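Lines hold sequence, tokenised fold; shown next:
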Amino acid sequence: MSVKTWRSRQCGADTSNDAERVSEQRAVMMAQATFPYYLLKEEAMLNKVLKETVLSKVVAIDKLQSGLASSLRIQDVMRNEIQRVQDELSCITHKAKQLELQVSCVPCIFHIYFP
């Protein structure tokens, strides 16, 4: 005969079931009382790690944005400098053509005045 059967005969089935339920409820309550503390502590640590990760990524993104803005400013300055040099080259080319025409006309004028 098992202990459970013997108890149910001695004390009645309701009493043993109640005692088992109470002990199970106590065990569950103890587990619930300690479980949330560890769960909350674990969750807090995880949140801290995730926040630090997010913040480090935000800092990295800020640095990248700053670098990009700096590169765009440098690109704009270089574009303006290239345009200035191209304009200057165009002026020099135009002056060189004028000089070439003047030099090519000098012999013509020289022959006119000194035949």
The chain has one domain: 3-113.
